[in-house]
Amino acid sequence: MSGTVAEPKGATKRTLQGLSGLVYFFFYAPIILLVIFSFSDNRNVGVWGGFTLDWYREFGESSGTQDALWNSVQIGLVSTAVSVVLGTLAALALERFTFRGKQVFDALLYLPIIIPDVTMAVMLLLFFAQIAEWFGITKGFATITLSHIAFSISFVSIVVRARLAGMDDKLEEAAMDLYATRWMAFRHVTLPLIMPGILGGALLAMTLSLDDVVITQFVTGPGWNTLPVFVFGLIRRGVTPLINAVSVVMLVASMGLVALSLITDRARSSDSAT
Amino acid sequence: MSDVTTGSAAVELRNVTKRFDEVVAVDAIDLTIADGEFFALLGPSGCGKTTTLRMIAGLEFPTEGSLKIFGDEVGTLPPNKRPVNTVFQNYALFPHMNVLDNVAFGLKMQGVDKHEARSRAQESIGLVQLGGMEKRRPSQLSGGQQQRVALARALVNEPKVLLLDEPLGALDLKLRQEMQSELKSLQQELGVSFVFVTHDQEEALTMSDRIAVMDKGELLQVGSPEQIYEHPANRFVADFIGQTNLLEGTVADHETVVLSNGTRIAAHSDLAAGSAVALSLRPERASLHSRGQDVTDGANVDGVVARVTYLGNALVYIVNLDWMEIEVRDENNPGADRFHEGDEVSVLWSTESVSVVTN
Prior knowledge:
The structure holds two protein chains of two kinds.
Chain A: H1 10-37, H2 54-61, H3 63-96, H4 102-114, H5 117-135, H6 141-165, H7 170-177, H8 182-211, H9 214-219, H10 227-236, H11 241-271
Chain B: E1 9-20, E2 23-34, E3 38-42, H1 49-57, E4 64-69, E5 72-73, E6 84-87, H2 99-109, H3 114-127, H4 143-155, E7 161-165, H5 173-190, E8 193-198, H6 201-207, E9 210-215, E10 218-223, H7 225-230, H8 235-240, E11 245-253, E12 256-259, E13 264-266, E14 276-281, E15 287-290, E16 299-310, E17 314-320, E18 325-331, E19 344-349, E20 354-357
Helix pairs in contact in B: 2-3, 2-4, 3-4
């Protein structure tokens, strides 16, 4: 694009470049500091005491962090699996069919994205208080997983719907004209074509589940922690570079998932571009 | 209107109506398409031609009426249970499969053995002259090549009837003409019925054995290109197929029509005296002469040349008759009389050149 009429010049250009630099600085400087001090051999965060891997070792040895990590992974996997199936089905229904109350359903599906986390957390808390009484569910794994499913479905269905909208709906008709049953048409044509959306939605759901603090904290039971909630608890007991180490682990995991989702989506969409 | 005997009927529609909610897309049509016939469904967009094709394919079900394919009632049978295949308007090739897998798809779905499916698909790809392209994705092919893949993908299943929805609409003129003759010879080679939908009357005339002209969900006329061009059933058909001049008038008796300006013209019809009609006069059936020449046969009206368009192989005159303008087309033969703007002329035609059409 260089040399186009619309490209800023001179002082304007330098100002804009400077502003961009500042934005990136505010984004990434804290992250870089976080990573650096996770290797600091000093109990006080922000004071460099030489290089050490002790905090990572402590993270590996502490049963609290281990349990929290394992809980996070389990909840993440289960809530992702369930929300991917339900979110994809919702996307298919909304994109392919017309039915009574479709617009209401459509609006309700996206509500969890719009309403603040705290509001949703309180609602879920009250909901589970009631449900726990009726069905005897104990707060913990079940309530957290259900909550994560509740907000992940919306994200999954948005991503899958975008993919479906870009797909020619004559393709399914063509498949059925070529002797495929409805199921075979879905299996051999629709599913492969929306798979990048489904994978992207799954990774998004996984990331959201692994990162959530607010809602999880409201619906969890006594002594039951996910990793981010555990970190939040650590801070209240005094900040040590252990938090940095835990945060770095979560950061790397989240970035890995997002990167994976971008890579698969790009590879797939370049495959199926028409 | 159709006159094919039931015994050789590939597709038979009896009183078929399709409604979408309140909208009548196809209104009680009767249509018989013979085995081995190249048949066109022709009409402007929204006339119900595509809906009719989709009902034959099984992609829509008739609201009322009977639809038979080779004698079997298929009204509400899903598309995968019908011995027909479709070439879709924008081809609808599967973007995630290569050419070979696209073509072999139908066979795979029918459970044909993998090796046999492969070799039959190869054969079909050869038939449409795409040998060597098997491994390409649809996105790597030109529009014309995609069209051929769509054709191969349908034909490999040996359908008893091939349905084509505006198959050439997306191609440029030259390619379209090439594909027209190729489709025609392919159809003759295979001997199965091709039913194709088009809004292009020239394409329909060029390719088809018979044409069904539709408008607003109704079937207006079914016949050979010649029948439809020479003897249009009504005003719409006359106007839609080719160029024509419509001269408004009233039937005086079986051999005479009185034009709106009072001129009496010899024209045969079976309509009752007083019926409002139009005379359909094709531009190439009329000729121009200097005024005052004797008219031995046929009819003539006087006018003034308003515009002349030079087309190379022909000359098109727009003649002002005072109450309307008519178009006359003359072959550009050397030695033929040439007329110029402002010339006072007489427009002549023979009685059998016009048809009397009603609204």
